[in-house]
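Table 4 source record.
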Amino acid sequence: MTVMNVNLTNTALVGSLLAPTPLLITLPISIQFVAVMLATIPASLMMAQFGRKPIFLIGVFMVIIGAFGQASSILINSFELLVFFSFLLGLGQGVAQFYRYAAADSVEGSEKAKAVSLVLLGGLASAIIGPEIAYRTVSLLPNNLYAGCFVITGLVQMIAIPVILGLDLPPLKRQKHKGRPITKFFQIPSFLSGLTAATLGYCLMTFLMTATPLQVVEVSELSHQANARVIQWHVVAMFAPSLFSGLLIAKFGVQKILWAGIFFFVLACIIALLGTNFYFYLTTLIFLGVGWNFLFVGGSSIIADSASLEERGRVQGIADFCIFSFVALASMFSGMAHSEFGWTFMISISSLVIVLISFSVILGKPKLEEKR
């Protein structure tokens, strides 16, 4: 997440320097979400075949090579290489998405939501470290803005190697019965509701967050420090609720948490329309982060709880494939929408997405099953 936060803070700005057209400014960050999407199903299948640990390690090395490659592409002024290495980094990030499922699979019933929220809680550290790296290393390499940021993230990612090697991750047991066909899950209202909430919640957050650095730095002409602070507190807001979101789901039920996420999204859109100075951006992104957490943790807990042991690998892989397919589109459309239509138009589109999420929660009526 530290690596991703640096990318979210600075990659669109790098794109504005290297892209041959304004329409491609957010392509390097968008391609990361495409790569995450493409990695999900192969990663889940390989984990079932070889176990989680070796695949987690392969993902780490992809991120390391991708980060150093991003720095090199800036040094040689190559937008094409920036896109390629961003894609490679995204593949590694796709593997990392299964950290939360590895945690969820270690417990049962209502404990799954707590496990997912605790894994996401690790993002709090990245909320502090990532934007600090992004801001303080902008000019680390003379005459090559932002290149130093990616060198540092590659070094930071190396810390994950001994951590993963030290994890106790027994091989996944192969099941004789594969369980229900994947099509059956798309006929379950609660599963569809959870998947829709997680997908559209992630899409809306990505749609606005991807364009925020462009809006803050290039339109409102605020400083890189201001941009870093907005993204920093946004990421804090994304992960700080994980201290209690799992407990809230266990106590009040997942549906109420999904409605809370929708409420915070509405607040974010209202505040975004009220002004364009630092504090409006800051407050908008904070509420956006809290809303994402409630919808993503709630949706992920429903997905994890919908499948039996033998079904989890396939179901989780398909779910993440769906989530990041739409997230990639949201990220790509973000840059185009911002450059062609502006910030107010983006907020209007976001309001329509909120309506769709609300309908999915009403129709699905998901309930998190408690097993005591």
